[in-house]
Every structure is written in C-alpha cells, then in structure tokens.
Amino acid sequence: MNRSTRRTFLSTAMAVGVAGLAFSCAAAAQDAYPTRPITIIVPHAPGGAVDSTARLFADKLKDELKQSVVVENRAGASGMIGAAYVARAEPDGYTLYFNASIHAINPLLYKKDVKFDAVKDFTPISMLAQGALIFSVNPKVPARNAQEMAALLKSDPAKYTFVTSGFGSAGHLGAAQFLYDVKMAGDIPIVLYKGAAPALQDLVGGQVSAMMDPMLSSLPFVKAGKLRALAVTGHDRSPLLPDVPTMRESGFKDFEFYSWYGLWSPAKVPAPIVSKLEAASARIMASPDVKERLASLGFESAYKNSADFAKYIDSEMARYQKIIDAAHITVE
C-alpha cells in the first residue's frame, strides 16, 4: 500500500470511526432520555381546560420519567404563538406541546396567517383525553331541550345569540354545526369572546343566549342554577349530569362533538424518545386516579398511540373542514 493509499484508508477509517462514535453517543443519549428537565408548552392562558389537563398530565409524567416537567404558558393568537414556538424548537424531546383540538382547526381557518404546518412540523405522540361539551342557555331562555331551542331560533332569530370562548374552538364549531343542522346558519350570530370566563359571565348575565363549552368551565354555573343545560355533545350521558340528554337523544342523531387533548413534539424527534413518551402516556392515562380526576373535570381518558393519533387528527381535520365550509366560517 503506497503512502497516498494508506492516507486515504486512514482518513476513511477515521471518518467511519467518528461517525460510529457519534451514532453510539446519540443512541446512548436517547436511551438515557430524559437527563434534564422537560418543558411542556401550553399555548393558552393558565386556568382553562387545556392548562388544567396539561398540568395534571405533567405531574404524572414527572413521576413516570423521574425527571422535572415544567408547564410553560405561551398564549395568544388562538394558540398559534405557542405552536409556532414548538415547531421551531430543537427536536430532542425536551420541548413538548400540549393542546386541544383547536390545533387541528386553526390551519383550516387561518390559512394565510399560520406560520407552521400543523401536521408536518409536529410529531403526534399520544392522544390523551376528550371531553363532551355542555349546550347551555341563560335560564331566562324558555327552552328546556335542544329541540325547543331550535324552535325558538326559528320563531324569533333576532332575539337570540350564541357565544364562543374562542374563534375556531370546539365550542365554536359545535355551535356552528347545531345552527347548520337546524338550518339557521348565518341567521344567528356567534359572538366571539377571548376566553371562557368573560363569555360565561355575559351568558349568565343574559347579554347572550346560548353556548357550547367544555364541562370544566360551564359545569359550576349549571350546578349553581345560573345556566340551564339543554344537552351534552358526547356519545353517552355524562355522570356529572345524568339527567341531561345527549344531542343524539335530543333528536340530532349524527351530532357528537368532543374537545380532545393530546401531546406533540417537534417533528423529527428520534423514534426511541417518541416511544418512551408514548409508553409513559399510556401508563398515565390508564391510571385509576388520573381517570377519576379527569371524570371530576368532565373529561375521560381517550389514549391513542402515535400512529392512531395521527390518523385521528387527519379524520378530525376532514370533519372540521366540512363544518367550516357548510357554516361559511371565515376569518374576518
């Protein structure tokens, strides 16, 4: 072997060795994950349904992974500020993202404004929970069920308004679906509020008439008699409101609507890390105390692994697009 050939051989061997060492180090780091605190980005303000479920999950994830897990709120722009931050984060498993179904709705509404791809820029790790909405009205509204509410809207549309806690939220699309089903889409305004608290305040005060909203925020007002629940939007009645029928029972046979919650990471997070988080999520959501706590908030465990969650997101986005098109929901 001449000197030139020997030099080439040694250079190649060194490169292969370095590459192999780098691969071994990367694999070891993935096996050891996590070795430092994890941050879960919640793209909404503290205290709401997303934040509450995220903090419950984060507390359990800390125990599962034996590592500190911090929830960081990055609210604004219907959750898109926090989502954009995660989309740009290092795909190392130390920045995660917890959001509701609005993550799959935003790109269908804000086509020109979204600075990320809600599918391609994220890895869905696990779907975790879901919660039916309460269809409630101010007690002065003379409707006792969803069919009576539909009749009222048709008889005097100028008298009634719906309210939503956020543009593009599950409650917004649920209300839009109902108005479309009763052929009143476009005739009854859906007033946009920034958050559940001010929306519920005006609903209780009678400034607006009706709302679809997660149980976590609406249930206390129903229990206190400040709102009247007409129906729930899940497949089954809620144990928290056993006397309130579902929309299906109320004559809307195809009406089923949930706000669902899941965990994502930035795209291209190594598969071993995704698998570790996926397995931890499965154990957490199967825990009896987590199920009990979720039930007390009006949610239920609805775990799906990464592959099934990705398929579910695709199917939900297709369904949401149909509602948006049918109800002519546009960003003004």
UniProtKB/TrEMBL annotation:
Pfam families: TctC. It comes from the Bacteria. The keyword Ribosomal protein does not apply. Residues 1-29 form the signal peptide. InterPro entries: BUG, Bug_dom1, TAT_signal. Keywords: Signal. SUPFAM superfamilies: Periplasmic binding protein-like II. CDD domains: PBP2_Bug27 (cd13578). Belongs to the UPF0065 (bug) family. This is Tripartite tricarboxylate transporter substrate binding protein. It comes from Pigmentiphaga soli. The lineage of its organism: Bacteria, Pseudomonadati, Pseudomonadota, Betaproteobacteria, Burkholderiales.
